[in-house]
Amino acid sequence: MTGNLPDSEGSRLHATTLREAMLGWLRPLAVDLVISGEGHGEIGLMIVPDREVFVQNGMSLDEAGGVMICTRALAALRERLTDWNAAERGASHQIGAALFLAEPPQLGEGEVSAKGDLNGHKIMARRADILDALNAGSAGVVRL
């Protein structure tokens, strides 16, 4: 990711601002998310879905390889991210790929702090195969 994530203080600020904006944009589908992209040339999102919203709206919780593969949820995600990218002019805010995580972040694995904050580095390290799927555009990944 051309200097936008997370190797400097300004980059962390950019990632935090983008994360907050994306959470607002993706509600009610998302309860949290991790931004990836350093070294890949595009921003990727690993989204923690609101499973109750999925169930209430008749969306399946089917998964493959740690990624949720609900066609309706992925279509809704694609629509929201397409609208986001159309509204954002700067390349540093354009989303290139996104997926819904099938397993919520785990406190016992260090993915969540005692305060409830996500540890993005730990999530990406523990779920390196899912991060690879995100970057490759595998099943359950929305590519834009």
Strand and helix layout:
Elements: H1 9-26, E1 30-36, E2 43-49, H2 51-56, E3 63-64, E4 67-68, H3 71-87, E5 95-100, H4 120-126, H5 128-136, E6 141-143
Parallel strand pairs: 2-5
Antiparallel strand pairs: 1-2, 3-4, 5-6
Supply the key terms.
single chain; 144 residues; four-stranded mixed beta sheet; 5 helices; disordered N terminus
General description of the model:
With 144 residues, the protein is an alpha+beta fold. It has five helices and six strands, in the order αββαββαβααβ. It has helices spanning 9-26, 51-56, 71-87, 120-126, 128-136, and strands spanning 30-36, 43-49, 63-64, 67-68, 95-100, 141-143. The two termini are 16 Å apart.
The N- to C-terminal Cα distance equals: 16 Å
Share of helix, binned: 25-40%
Q: Into which percentage range does the β-strand content fall?
A: 15-25%
Q: Taking Cα atoms only, what radius of gyration do you get, to the nearest Å?
A: 14 Å
Q: State the shape.
A: globular
The biggest beta sheet reads:
4 strands, mixed
H and E order: HEEHEEHEHHE
Spatial strand sequence of the major β-sheet: 1-2-5-6
Class of secondary structure makeup? alpha+beta
Mean pLDDT: 89
Q: If helices are DSSP runs of H or I spanning 4 or more residues, what is the number of helices?
A: 5
The total beta strand count reads 6
List the uncertain runs.
1-10
